[in-house]
Amino acid sequence: MKKHVGSFLILLFCSQLLVAQIKTWSHPKTVKTVQWEVNDLIYKTKSEIKDPFSKEVYAIVSDENGTQKIPIFYNGNKQWVFRYSSASVGKKTFVLESEIKELHKKKGKIVVTKNTKKNRHGGVVLNKENPQHLFYQDGSHYFNLAFECDWLFALDYNQKTIPKTEHLLSLVEKYGFNQIVMNVYSYDVKWPKDKRLLKYPEHEYGSREDIFPFLGSNSNPDFSALNVDFFRHFDKVISSMHDKEIVSHLMIYVWNKLVNWPDMQSKADNMYYDYVVKRYQAFPNIVWDVSKEALHYERATKEYISERIARTRKLDAFNRLVSVHDYGFCRNHKDEVDFISMQNWQHTLYQNMLKAKKDFPNKPIFNIEHGGYEESPYVVFPGAYDNAEACLRRNYMCLFAGGYTTYYWQGMSWNAVIHNPFEQPANFIKPKFNYFKNMRTLFDTVNFENCEPMSHYNSAGYNLTNVKDGIVLMYAPKENNWVGASKVIADKFNYKNATKQWFNTLTGEFTKEEKYVKKGIALEFWDSRPWKNQADAILIIRNLDKK
Fold first, then answer.
1. Is 19 a residue whose pLDDT tops 50?
2. What CATH number has the domain bearing residue 109?
3. Residue 148: closest CA among 372, 444, 390, 424
4. 3-state SS assignment for residue 124
5. Does 121 fall in a domain?
6. Rounded Cα–Cα distance for residues 145 and 50 (Å)
7. Taking each helix axis from N to C terminus, what angle separates 163-174 and 433-444, rounded to the nearest 10 degrees?
8. Lowest mean pLDDT among 27-41, 151-165, 469-483
Protein backbone atom coordinates (compact mmCIF):
# COMPACT_ATOMS: atom_id res chain seq x y z
CA MET A 1 0.00 0.00 0.00
CA LYS A 2 2.80 2.41 0.90
CA LYS A 3 4.41 1.83 -2.50
CA HIS A 4 1.23 2.87 -4.34
CA VAL A 5 0.78 5.95 -2.13
CA GLY A 6 4.38 6.98 -2.82
CA SER A 7 3.92 6.63 -6.56
CA PHE A 8 0.75 8.69 -6.41
CA LEU A 9 2.47 11.48 -4.45
CA ILE A 10 5.31 11.59 -6.97
CA LEU A 11 2.85 11.92 -9.83
CA LEU A 12 0.91 14.56 -7.94
CA PHE A 13 4.07 16.54 -7.25
CA CYS A 14 5.10 16.35 -10.92
CA SER A 15 1.65 17.53 -11.99
CA GLN A 16 1.82 20.48 -9.60
CA LEU A 17 5.18 21.45 -11.08
CA LEU A 18 3.54 21.36 -14.52
CA VAL A 19 1.69 24.61 -13.82
CA ALA A 20 5.06 26.37 -13.68
CA GLN A 21 6.42 24.87 -16.92
CA ILE A 22 5.12 27.90 -18.79
CA LYS A 23 7.07 30.72 -17.19
CA THR A 24 4.68 33.55 -16.34
CA TRP A 25 5.30 37.29 -16.13
CA SER A 26 2.77 39.96 -15.08
CA HIS A 27 3.06 43.28 -16.93
CA PRO A 28 6.81 42.74 -17.37
CA LYS A 29 9.40 45.36 -18.22
CA THR A 30 12.20 42.83 -18.71
CA VAL A 31 11.89 39.09 -19.35
CA LYS A 32 14.82 36.74 -18.81
CA THR A 33 14.38 33.39 -20.49
CA VAL A 34 16.22 30.46 -22.05
CA GLN A 35 16.25 29.40 -25.70
CA TRP A 36 13.06 27.41 -26.56
CA GLU A 37 11.51 28.05 -23.13
CA VAL A 38 7.83 29.07 -23.27
CA ASN A 39 6.85 32.29 -21.48
CA ASP A 40 3.47 33.89 -20.83
CA LEU A 41 3.61 37.67 -20.54
CA ILE A 42 0.27 38.55 -18.97
CA TYR A 43 -1.52 41.89 -19.26
CA LYS A 44 -4.76 42.59 -17.45
CA THR A 45 -7.19 45.28 -18.48
CA LYS A 46 -9.24 47.20 -15.93
CA SER A 47 -12.44 46.92 -17.90
CA GLU A 48 -14.20 44.06 -19.69
CA ILE A 49 -13.63 44.11 -23.43
CA LYS A 50 -16.64 43.40 -25.61
CA ASP A 51 -16.24 40.46 -28.00
CA PRO A 52 -12.62 39.86 -26.87
CA PHE A 53 -11.94 36.88 -29.17
CA SER A 54 -12.36 39.09 -32.23
CA LYS A 55 -9.86 41.74 -31.13
CA GLU A 56 -6.52 42.05 -32.87
CA VAL A 57 -3.63 42.42 -30.46
CA TYR A 58 -0.01 41.84 -31.46
CA ALA A 59 3.46 41.98 -29.98
CA ILE A 60 6.13 43.28 -32.33
CA VAL A 61 9.41 41.66 -31.28
CA SER A 62 12.61 43.12 -32.67
CA ASP A 63 16.27 42.17 -32.63
CA GLU A 64 19.26 42.47 -34.93
CA ASN A 65 17.78 39.84 -37.25
CA GLY A 66 14.46 41.60 -37.85
CA THR A 67 10.95 41.54 -36.39
CA GLN A 68 8.20 39.08 -35.48
CA LYS A 69 4.52 40.01 -35.32
CA ILE A 70 3.11 37.63 -32.72
CA PRO A 71 -0.66 37.51 -32.04
CA ILE A 72 -1.79 37.87 -28.42
CA PHE A 73 -4.76 35.83 -27.17
CA TYR A 74 -7.53 36.45 -24.64
CA ASN A 75 -7.40 34.16 -21.60
CA GLY A 76 -10.56 35.17 -19.72
CA ASN A 77 -10.78 37.25 -16.53
CA LYS A 78 -9.63 40.37 -18.43
CA GLN A 79 -6.27 38.67 -19.13
CA TRP A 80 -4.38 39.01 -22.40
CA VAL A 81 -1.42 36.71 -22.96
CA PHE A 82 1.66 37.33 -25.08
CA ARG A 83 3.06 33.79 -25.32
CA TYR A 84 6.66 33.73 -26.44
CA SER A 85 9.62 31.46 -27.05
CA SER A 86 12.81 32.11 -28.96
CA ALA A 87 15.03 29.93 -31.15
CA SER A 88 17.78 32.56 -31.08
CA VAL A 89 19.73 33.97 -28.15
CA GLY A 90 20.40 37.62 -27.42
CA LYS A 91 18.58 40.81 -26.47
CA LYS A 92 15.22 41.73 -27.94
CA THR A 93 12.63 44.45 -27.49
CA PHE A 94 8.87 44.32 -27.92
CA VAL A 95 5.94 46.68 -28.17
CA LEU A 96 2.23 45.83 -28.21
CA GLU A 97 -0.03 47.02 -30.99
CA SER A 98 -3.73 46.92 -30.21
CA GLU A 99 -7.08 48.54 -30.79
CA ILE A 100 -7.48 48.22 -27.00
CA LYS A 101 -6.08 51.42 -25.54
CA GLU A 102 -4.99 49.84 -22.24
CA LEU A 103 -2.69 47.46 -24.12
CA HIS A 104 -1.47 49.65 -26.96
CA LYS A 105 2.20 50.68 -26.79
CA LYS A 106 3.09 48.51 -23.79
CA LYS A 107 6.84 47.89 -24.07
CA GLY A 108 9.50 45.61 -22.70
CA LYS A 109 12.79 43.79 -23.17
CA ILE A 110 13.57 40.09 -23.54
CA VAL A 111 16.95 38.54 -22.80
CA VAL A 112 17.42 35.00 -24.16
CA THR A 113 20.31 32.80 -23.01
CA LYS A 114 21.50 29.55 -24.60
CA ASN A 115 19.62 26.31 -23.97
CA THR A 116 21.35 23.92 -21.58
CA LYS A 117 18.78 21.11 -21.55
CA LYS A 118 20.55 18.11 -23.09
CA ASN A 119 17.58 16.62 -24.97
CA ARG A 120 16.03 19.94 -26.12
CA HIS A 121 16.73 20.81 -29.74
CA GLY A 122 13.98 23.27 -30.69
CA GLY A 123 11.15 23.03 -33.17
CA VAL A 124 10.86 20.62 -36.10
CA VAL A 125 11.97 22.14 -39.40
CA LEU A 126 12.88 21.25 -42.97
CA ASN A 127 16.40 21.13 -44.39
CA LYS A 128 17.05 22.20 -47.99
CA GLU A 129 20.19 20.07 -48.10
CA ASN A 130 18.31 16.93 -47.04
CA PRO A 131 14.68 17.65 -48.01
CA GLN A 132 13.15 14.22 -47.37
CA HIS A 133 14.09 14.14 -43.71
CA LEU A 134 13.00 16.18 -40.70
CA PHE A 135 15.36 18.10 -38.46
CA TYR A 136 15.35 20.16 -35.27
CA GLN A 137 16.20 23.85 -35.23
CA ASP A 138 19.65 23.11 -33.80
CA GLY A 139 20.44 21.00 -36.90
CA SER A 140 20.13 17.53 -35.39
CA HIS A 141 17.93 14.90 -37.07
CA TYR A 142 14.35 14.45 -35.85
CA PHE A 143 13.55 10.75 -36.15
CA ASN A 144 9.79 11.09 -36.28
CA LEU A 145 8.34 8.10 -34.40
CA ALA A 146 4.72 8.98 -33.75
CA PHE A 147 2.02 7.63 -31.45
CA GLU A 148 -1.69 8.36 -31.93
CA CYS A 149 -3.86 9.43 -28.98
CA ASP A 150 -6.86 11.42 -30.18
CA TRP A 151 -8.45 11.87 -26.75
CA LEU A 152 -5.34 13.03 -24.90
CA PHE A 153 -7.07 16.33 -24.16
CA ALA A 154 -9.72 14.55 -22.06
CA LEU A 155 -7.53 12.92 -19.42
CA ASP A 156 -7.73 14.72 -16.06
CA TYR A 157 -10.16 17.29 -17.46
CA ASN A 158 -11.56 19.62 -14.76
CA GLN A 159 -8.75 18.55 -12.41
CA LYS A 160 -6.14 20.88 -10.95
CA THR A 161 -3.36 18.41 -11.69
CA ILE A 162 -2.91 15.94 -14.53
CA PRO A 163 -1.51 12.66 -13.09
CA LYS A 164 -3.13 10.40 -15.72
CA THR A 165 -1.81 12.54 -18.55
CA GLU A 166 1.65 12.63 -16.97
CA HIS A 167 1.66 8.85 -16.58
CA LEU A 168 0.74 8.25 -20.21
CA LEU A 169 3.22 10.81 -21.52
CA SER A 170 5.96 9.30 -19.37
CA LEU A 171 5.31 5.94 -21.05
CA VAL A 172 5.40 7.53 -24.49
CA GLU A 173 8.73 9.14 -23.62
CA LYS A 174 10.17 6.01 -21.97
CA TYR A 175 9.54 3.83 -25.02
CA GLY A 176 11.13 6.18 -27.53
CA PHE A 177 8.13 7.84 -29.18
CA ASN A 178 8.66 11.54 -29.81
CA GLN A 179 5.40 12.67 -31.38
CA ILE A 180 1.71 12.30 -30.56
CA VAL A 181 -0.85 12.55 -33.35
CA MET A 182 -3.77 14.14 -31.51
CA ASN A 183 -6.95 16.17 -31.85
CA VAL A 184 -7.62 19.49 -30.20
CA TYR A 185 -11.10 18.08 -29.55
CA SER A 186 -13.11 14.95 -30.39
CA TYR A 187 -16.55 13.96 -29.19
CA ASP A 188 -17.21 10.27 -29.91
CA VAL A 189 -16.72 7.49 -32.43
CA LYS A 190 -19.48 6.68 -34.90
CA TRP A 191 -19.03 2.90 -34.92
CA PRO A 192 -20.38 0.38 -32.32
CA LYS A 193 -18.37 0.15 -29.11
CA ASP A 194 -16.99 -2.98 -27.49
CA LYS A 195 -19.38 -4.00 -24.69
CA ARG A 196 -16.39 -4.90 -22.50
CA LEU A 197 -15.87 -1.15 -22.03
CA LEU A 198 -18.99 -1.11 -19.86
CA LYS A 199 -17.06 -2.98 -17.16
CA TYR A 200 -14.33 -0.34 -17.12
CA PRO A 201 -16.07 3.05 -17.56
CA GLU A 202 -12.90 4.82 -16.37
CA HIS A 203 -11.38 3.96 -19.76
CA GLU A 204 -14.19 5.56 -21.79
CA TYR A 205 -13.81 9.22 -22.82
CA GLY A 206 -16.38 9.51 -25.60
CA SER A 207 -19.64 11.49 -25.28
CA ARG A 208 -18.33 13.76 -22.53
CA GLU A 209 -20.74 16.71 -22.43
CA ASP A 210 -18.59 18.56 -19.89
CA ILE A 211 -15.74 18.96 -22.38
CA PHE A 212 -16.18 21.39 -25.26
CA PRO A 213 -13.98 24.16 -26.73
CA PHE A 214 -16.98 26.49 -27.13
CA LEU A 215 -19.55 27.49 -24.54
CA GLY A 216 -22.35 25.03 -23.89
CA SER A 217 -21.75 21.42 -24.88
CA ASN A 218 -21.34 19.34 -28.01
CA SER A 219 -25.05 18.44 -27.91
CA ASN A 220 -26.15 21.99 -27.11
CA PRO A 221 -23.41 24.34 -28.35
CA ASP A 222 -23.14 28.06 -27.83
CA PHE A 223 -20.83 29.33 -30.55
CA SER A 224 -20.83 32.94 -29.34
CA ALA A 225 -17.55 32.50 -27.43
CA LEU A 226 -14.83 30.00 -26.58
CA ASN A 227 -14.48 27.99 -23.39
CA VAL A 228 -11.22 29.36 -21.99
CA ASP A 229 -11.14 26.66 -19.29
CA PHE A 230 -10.87 24.02 -22.03
CA PHE A 231 -7.75 25.69 -23.40
CA ARG A 232 -6.23 26.29 -19.98
CA HIS A 233 -6.37 22.54 -19.43
CA PHE A 234 -4.98 21.93 -22.92
CA ASP A 235 -2.07 24.22 -22.07
CA LYS A 236 -1.06 21.79 -19.34
CA VAL A 237 -1.08 18.89 -21.80
CA ILE A 238 1.00 20.64 -24.47
CA SER A 239 3.35 22.03 -21.83
CA SER A 240 3.94 18.59 -20.34
CA MET A 241 4.68 17.26 -23.82
CA HIS A 242 7.16 20.09 -24.37
CA ASP A 243 8.85 19.30 -21.07
CA LYS A 244 9.33 15.71 -22.28
CA GLU A 245 10.34 16.80 -25.80
CA ILE A 246 7.30 15.13 -27.38
CA VAL A 247 5.97 16.87 -30.48
CA SER A 248 2.25 17.56 -30.73
CA HIS A 249 1.04 16.74 -34.24
CA LEU A 250 -2.03 18.85 -33.66
CA MET A 251 -5.08 18.15 -35.80
CA ILE A 252 -7.20 21.29 -35.35
CA TYR A 253 -10.35 19.67 -36.77
CA VAL A 254 -11.63 16.11 -37.04
CA TRP A 255 -14.66 15.22 -39.14
CA ASN A 256 -15.35 11.60 -38.14
CA LYS A 257 -15.65 11.95 -34.34
CA LEU A 258 -19.20 13.37 -34.17
CA VAL A 259 -18.13 16.89 -33.26
CA ASN A 260 -20.82 19.55 -33.60
CA TRP A 261 -18.60 22.06 -35.40
CA PRO A 262 -19.88 25.51 -36.41
CA ASP A 263 -20.47 26.12 -40.11
CA MET A 264 -17.34 26.47 -42.19
CA GLN A 265 -16.12 30.06 -42.60
CA SER A 266 -18.65 31.29 -40.02
CA LYS A 267 -17.50 33.78 -37.38
CA ALA A 268 -17.39 30.97 -34.79
CA ASP A 269 -15.39 28.70 -37.09
CA ASN A 270 -12.76 31.35 -37.75
CA MET A 271 -12.69 32.36 -34.08
CA TYR A 272 -11.90 28.79 -33.00
CA TYR A 273 -9.31 28.11 -35.70
CA ASP A 274 -7.48 31.39 -35.22
CA TYR A 275 -7.47 30.98 -31.45
CA VAL A 276 -5.80 27.57 -31.61
CA VAL A 277 -3.05 28.95 -33.87
CA LYS A 278 -2.59 32.04 -31.71
CA ARG A 279 -2.47 30.14 -28.44
CA TYR A 280 -0.10 27.28 -29.35
CA GLN A 281 2.29 28.62 -31.99
CA ALA A 282 4.94 29.63 -29.42
CA PHE A 283 5.40 26.01 -28.33
CA PRO A 284 8.44 24.63 -30.22
CA ASN A 285 6.87 21.14 -30.09
CA ILE A 286 3.95 22.03 -32.38
CA VAL A 287 3.29 20.69 -35.89
CA TRP A 288 0.02 21.84 -37.46
CA ASP A 289 -2.45 19.54 -39.21
CA VAL A 290 -5.59 21.27 -40.49
CA SER A 291 -7.87 18.27 -40.06
CA LYS A 292 -7.96 14.55 -39.58
CA GLU A 293 -9.75 12.94 -42.54
CA ALA A 294 -9.66 16.37 -44.16
CA LEU A 295 -11.55 15.64 -47.40
CA HIS A 296 -13.56 12.65 -46.23
CA TYR A 297 -17.16 12.60 -44.99
CA GLU A 298 -18.29 15.25 -47.51
CA ARG A 299 -17.68 18.16 -45.18
CA ALA A 300 -14.69 20.25 -46.22
CA THR A 301 -13.68 21.23 -49.72
CA LYS A 302 -10.14 21.46 -51.05
CA GLU A 303 -10.62 25.23 -51.30
CA TYR A 304 -11.51 25.40 -47.62
CA ILE A 305 -8.46 23.34 -46.59
CA SER A 306 -6.22 25.54 -48.75
CA GLU A 307 -7.67 28.63 -47.10
CA ARG A 308 -7.03 27.16 -43.64
CA ILE A 309 -3.39 26.50 -44.55
CA ALA A 310 -2.95 30.06 -45.78
CA ARG A 311 -4.69 31.31 -42.64
CA THR A 312 -2.31 29.30 -40.46
CA ARG A 313 0.78 30.64 -42.19
CA LYS A 314 -0.46 34.24 -41.91
CA LEU A 315 -1.11 33.96 -38.16
CA ASP A 316 1.83 31.79 -37.14
CA ALA A 317 4.82 34.03 -36.44
CA PHE A 318 6.98 30.98 -35.62
CA ASN A 319 6.56 29.19 -38.98
CA ARG A 320 5.72 25.76 -37.57
CA LEU A 321 5.36 22.97 -40.12
CA VAL A 322 1.94 22.43 -41.70
CA SER A 323 0.38 19.34 -43.29
CA VAL A 324 -3.03 17.77 -43.83
CA HIS A 325 -4.27 14.29 -42.87
CA ASP A 326 -5.31 13.54 -46.45
CA TYR A 327 -2.97 12.03 -49.01
CA GLY A 328 -5.12 13.12 -51.92
CA PHE A 329 -4.91 16.73 -50.83
CA CYS A 330 -1.16 16.55 -50.15
CA ARG A 331 -0.58 14.87 -53.52
CA ASN A 332 -2.49 17.54 -55.43
CA HIS A 333 -1.38 20.51 -53.31
CA LYS A 334 2.22 19.58 -52.55
CA ASP A 335 3.41 23.17 -52.63
CA GLU A 336 1.00 24.12 -49.84
CA VAL A 337 2.18 21.55 -47.29
CA ASP A 338 5.59 21.10 -45.65
CA PHE A 339 5.51 17.30 -45.63
CA ILE A 340 3.39 14.63 -47.25
CA SER A 341 0.91 12.87 -44.96
CA MET A 342 0.01 9.44 -46.32
CA GLN A 343 -2.81 7.14 -45.27
CA ASN A 344 -2.17 3.79 -46.89
CA TRP A 345 -3.56 0.44 -45.69
CA GLN A 346 -2.70 -1.65 -48.74
CA HIS A 347 -0.74 -4.88 -48.62
CA THR A 348 1.77 -3.22 -50.93
CA LEU A 349 2.57 -0.57 -48.31
CA TYR A 350 6.33 -0.68 -48.91
CA GLN A 351 5.97 -0.19 -52.65
CA ASN A 352 3.45 2.62 -52.14
CA MET A 353 5.78 4.40 -49.72
CA LEU A 354 8.62 4.07 -52.22
CA LYS A 355 6.46 5.57 -54.95
CA ALA A 356 5.56 8.53 -52.73
CA LYS A 357 9.22 9.09 -51.95
CA LYS A 358 9.97 9.14 -55.68
CA ASP A 359 6.97 11.34 -56.52
CA PHE A 360 7.87 13.97 -53.90
CA PRO A 361 11.67 14.23 -53.90
CA ASN A 362 11.64 17.49 -51.95
CA LYS A 363 9.24 16.51 -49.15
CA PRO A 364 9.47 14.21 -46.12
CA ILE A 365 6.96 11.33 -46.31
CA PHE A 366 4.99 10.54 -43.14
CA ASN A 367 2.59 7.59 -43.16
CA ILE A 368 0.23 8.82 -40.52
CA GLU A 369 -2.08 5.81 -40.79
CA HIS A 370 -0.99 2.49 -42.33
CA GLY A 371 -3.84 0.19 -41.29
CA GLY A 372 -2.00 -1.46 -38.39
CA TYR A 373 -3.98 -1.07 -35.16
CA GLU A 374 -2.42 -3.29 -32.51
CA GLU A 375 -4.90 -5.25 -30.38
CA SER A 376 -5.88 -4.16 -26.87
CA PRO A 377 -8.37 -5.37 -24.23
CA TYR A 378 -11.10 -3.65 -26.26
CA VAL A 379 -11.77 -3.84 -29.97
CA VAL A 380 -11.93 -0.11 -30.59
CA PHE A 381 -11.03 -0.05 -34.28
CA PRO A 382 -9.21 -3.07 -35.72
CA GLY A 383 -8.33 -1.61 -39.12
CA ALA A 384 -6.64 -3.99 -41.56
CA TYR A 385 -4.16 -5.52 -39.08
CA ASP A 386 -4.24 -5.95 -35.31
CA ASN A 387 -1.58 -8.60 -34.70
CA ALA A 388 1.31 -6.89 -32.89
CA GLU A 389 4.04 -8.43 -35.06
CA ALA A 390 2.18 -7.65 -38.28
CA CYS A 391 1.71 -4.05 -37.14
CA LEU A 392 5.39 -3.81 -36.24
CA ARG A 393 6.43 -5.07 -39.67
CA ARG A 394 4.29 -2.41 -41.35
CA ASN A 395 6.07 0.27 -39.34
CA TYR A 396 9.40 -1.13 -40.51
CA MET A 397 8.14 -1.13 -44.11
CA CYS A 398 7.56 2.62 -43.83
CA LEU A 399 11.04 3.20 -42.45
CA PHE A 400 12.81 0.93 -44.94
CA ALA A 401 11.06 2.87 -47.69
CA GLY A 402 12.74 6.01 -46.33
CA GLY A 403 9.64 7.53 -44.69
CA TYR A 404 8.39 8.09 -41.17
CA THR A 405 5.69 6.17 -39.33
CA THR A 406 2.95 6.14 -36.67
CA TYR A 407 2.10 3.53 -34.04
CA TYR A 408 -1.47 2.77 -32.98
CA TRP A 409 -2.61 0.81 -29.94
CA GLN A 410 -6.36 0.38 -29.75
CA GLY A 411 -6.30 0.96 -25.99
CA MET A 412 -5.12 4.55 -26.40
CA SER A 413 -5.69 5.79 -29.91
CA TRP A 414 -9.37 6.74 -29.76
CA ASN A 415 -12.18 7.14 -27.20
CA ALA A 416 -10.89 4.28 -25.02
CA VAL A 417 -7.79 5.49 -23.20
CA ILE A 418 -6.00 3.14 -20.80
CA HIS A 419 -3.42 5.58 -19.47
CA ASN A 420 -1.69 2.94 -17.30
CA PRO A 421 -1.83 -0.30 -19.36
CA PHE A 422 0.90 -2.12 -17.44
CA GLU A 423 -1.00 -1.71 -14.18
CA GLN A 424 -4.18 -3.35 -15.49
CA PRO A 425 -5.35 -6.91 -14.64
CA ALA A 426 -3.11 -9.77 -15.78
CA ASN A 427 -5.64 -10.91 -18.38
CA PHE A 428 -5.61 -7.52 -20.13
CA ILE A 429 -3.76 -7.45 -23.45
CA LYS A 430 -0.76 -5.17 -22.97
CA PRO A 431 0.78 -2.98 -25.70
CA LYS A 432 4.09 -3.99 -27.24
CA PHE A 433 5.74 -0.62 -26.67
CA ASN A 434 9.06 -2.39 -26.20
CA TYR A 435 9.10 -3.31 -29.91
CA PHE A 436 9.31 0.39 -30.69
CA LYS A 437 11.87 1.17 -28.05
CA ASN A 438 14.01 -1.45 -29.78
CA MET A 439 13.30 0.17 -33.15
CA ARG A 440 14.32 3.58 -31.84
CA THR A 441 17.54 2.13 -30.41
CA LEU A 442 18.45 0.64 -33.78
CA PHE A 443 17.78 3.73 -35.87
CA ASP A 444 19.53 6.03 -33.43
CA THR A 445 22.74 4.12 -34.24
CA VAL A 446 22.66 4.13 -38.05
CA ASN A 447 21.99 7.81 -38.91
CA PHE A 448 18.60 7.35 -40.54
CA GLU A 449 18.83 10.81 -42.11
CA ASN A 450 21.63 9.52 -44.36
CA CYS A 451 19.84 6.29 -45.32
CA GLU A 452 18.20 5.74 -48.69
CA PRO A 453 16.21 2.73 -49.91
CA MET A 454 17.59 1.12 -53.05
CA SER A 455 14.52 -0.96 -53.67
CA HIS A 456 15.12 -1.83 -57.31
CA TYR A 457 18.32 -3.58 -56.26
CA ASN A 458 16.61 -5.85 -53.71
CA SER A 459 16.45 -9.50 -54.59
CA ALA A 460 14.41 -10.24 -51.45
CA GLY A 461 13.69 -8.41 -48.21
CA TYR A 462 14.23 -4.66 -47.93
CA ASN A 463 17.39 -2.58 -47.72
CA LEU A 464 18.46 0.83 -46.50
CA THR A 465 21.87 1.98 -47.68
CA ASN A 466 23.85 4.71 -45.95
CA VAL A 467 26.70 5.46 -48.35
CA LYS A 468 27.93 8.45 -46.36
CA ASP A 469 28.56 6.48 -43.16
CA GLY A 470 29.27 3.09 -44.73
CA ILE A 471 26.24 1.15 -43.47
CA VAL A 472 23.87 -1.28 -45.18
CA LEU A 473 20.72 -2.60 -43.46
CA MET A 474 18.91 -5.67 -44.80
CA TYR A 475 15.46 -6.45 -43.40
CA ALA A 476 14.56 -10.16 -43.42
CA PRO A 477 10.98 -11.27 -42.67
CA LYS A 478 11.11 -14.27 -40.37
CA GLU A 479 9.68 -16.69 -42.94
CA ASN A 480 12.16 -15.78 -45.68
CA ASN A 481 14.79 -18.40 -46.54
CA TRP A 482 17.04 -15.87 -48.22
CA VAL A 483 17.34 -12.13 -48.67
CA GLY A 484 19.92 -10.04 -50.44
CA ALA A 485 20.86 -6.91 -52.29
CA SER A 486 22.39 -6.96 -55.72
CA LYS A 487 25.86 -6.31 -57.04
CA VAL A 488 25.04 -2.63 -57.61
CA ILE A 489 24.98 -2.01 -53.85
CA ALA A 490 27.85 -4.37 -53.18
CA ASP A 491 30.02 -2.51 -55.70
CA LYS A 492 29.63 0.78 -53.82
CA PHE A 493 31.85 -0.37 -50.97
CA ASN A 494 35.16 -2.00 -50.16
CA TYR A 495 34.40 -4.82 -47.70
CA LYS A 496 37.94 -5.31 -46.45
CA ASN A 497 37.21 -3.88 -42.98
CA ALA A 498 33.47 -4.56 -42.84
CA THR A 499 31.64 -6.11 -39.89
CA LYS A 500 28.24 -7.74 -39.64
CA GLN A 501 25.70 -7.91 -36.86
CA TRP A 502 22.09 -9.07 -36.53
CA PHE A 503 19.22 -7.28 -34.80
CA ASN A 504 16.07 -8.99 -33.48
CA THR A 505 13.05 -6.73 -34.08
CA LEU A 506 11.04 -8.32 -31.26
CA THR A 507 13.58 -8.57 -28.45
CA GLY A 508 15.97 -5.81 -29.45
CA GLU A 509 18.88 -8.25 -29.18
CA PHE A 510 22.05 -7.55 -31.17
CA THR A 511 24.35 -10.43 -32.03
CA LYS A 512 28.06 -10.06 -31.50
CA GLU A 513 29.68 -7.91 -34.18
CA GLU A 514 32.02 -9.98 -36.31
CA LYS A 515 34.00 -9.71 -39.52
CA TYR A 516 31.87 -9.74 -42.66
CA VAL A 517 33.05 -11.89 -45.54
CA LYS A 518 31.34 -11.13 -48.83
CA LYS A 519 30.52 -14.19 -50.87
CA GLY A 520 29.89 -13.94 -54.56
CA ILE A 521 28.78 -10.77 -56.26
CA ALA A 522 25.99 -9.63 -53.89
CA LEU A 523 25.12 -9.00 -50.26
CA GLU A 524 23.41 -12.24 -49.37
CA PHE A 525 23.04 -14.74 -46.57
CA TRP A 526 21.68 -18.23 -46.12
CA ASP A 527 22.73 -20.26 -43.13
CA SER A 528 24.17 -17.49 -40.94
CA ARG A 529 20.84 -15.97 -40.05
CA PRO A 530 19.57 -16.30 -36.44
CA TRP A 531 15.93 -16.44 -35.26
CA LYS A 532 14.58 -17.84 -38.53
CA ASN A 533 10.81 -18.40 -38.27
CA GLN A 534 10.90 -16.72 -34.83
CA ALA A 535 11.33 -13.02 -35.50
CA ASP A 536 11.98 -10.59 -38.32
CA ALA A 537 15.66 -9.72 -38.26
CA ILE A 538 17.89 -6.99 -39.66
CA LEU A 539 21.42 -7.54 -40.90
CA ILE A 540 23.69 -4.55 -40.21
CA ILE A 541 26.90 -4.30 -42.24
CA ARG A 542 29.11 -1.47 -40.96
CA ASN A 543 32.38 0.35 -41.47
CA LEU A 544 32.40 -0.10 -45.20
CA ASP A 545 35.14 1.78 -46.97
CA LYS A 546 33.93 3.69 -49.99
CA LYS A 547 35.54 2.75 -53.27
1. no
2. 2.60.40.10
3. 372
4. strand
5. no
6. 44
7. 50
8. 469-483
